Amino acid sequence: MHQDQHTPPHTLKSRGRADGAPDSEHRMMAVDGDAAERTRAWRRLCDVLEQAGAVSPHAGWVINFAITWAPFGGASPAELLETFGVTPARFLQLLRESLDPRGGVPHLETLKRQLSESLLRAWAGVGRTQSPRPRRRATAAPGRA
Questions:
Q1: Which DSSP letter does residue 19 get?
Q2: What is the count of structural domains for the chain?
Q3: Complete DSSP assignment for 71-104
């Protein structure tokens, strides 16, 4: 294993600028790492909600799709139309409905509210004309081929 794999990029003096600050490549690695950790945290929250029965299988599919596209600022209108047959506004409504915190166990309501707020902030760019393809696509909806 390479020695740098165990040391966060911002602590590597030999690879940054002369003043010890990380160069743009290392800053991007840190940002990508933050996005990856945030995505993992969102998926863990979704798993907890699904296992507790706090969201339906369809809601889980909507939420996981939103998580997949969140690092990109949301999916493009074309992707939403192709995958769900809806406009960006309707998809965001589906996401809000999927994570509606009312009528549940208090701690699960809090998790749903936090996940909803976080994903909606990440999807603030939804509706733009183009978006990059995510590394991993969402799985098909239950009952859909």
A1: T
A2: 1
A3: GGTS--HHHHHHHHS--HHHHHHHHHHHT--TTS
Contacts (Cβ under 8 Å, ≥6 apart) of 124: 73, 74
What tokens does 34 get? 């933050």
Residue 133 lies in a domain: no
pLDDT of residue 141: 56
**Is the distance from CB of 110 to CB of 49 less than 8 angstroms?**
no
Q: Is residue 48 part of a domain?
A: yes
**62 within some domain:** yes
117, with CB counted inside 10 A (0-12, 13-18, 19+), is exposed
118 contacts 42 by C-beta, under 8 angstroms: yes
**pLDDT over 50 (residue 9):** no
* Number of neighbours of residue 114 by Cβ within 10 angstroms: 14
Q: Which domain holds residue 62?
A: 22-125
**At 140, is the pLDDT very low, low, confident or very high (cuts 50, 70, 90)?**
low
Q: pLDDT tens for residues 38-82?
A: 999 999 999 999 999 999 999 999 999 999 999 999 999 999 999
Q: In the predicted model, is pLDDT for residue 115 greater than 60?
A: yes
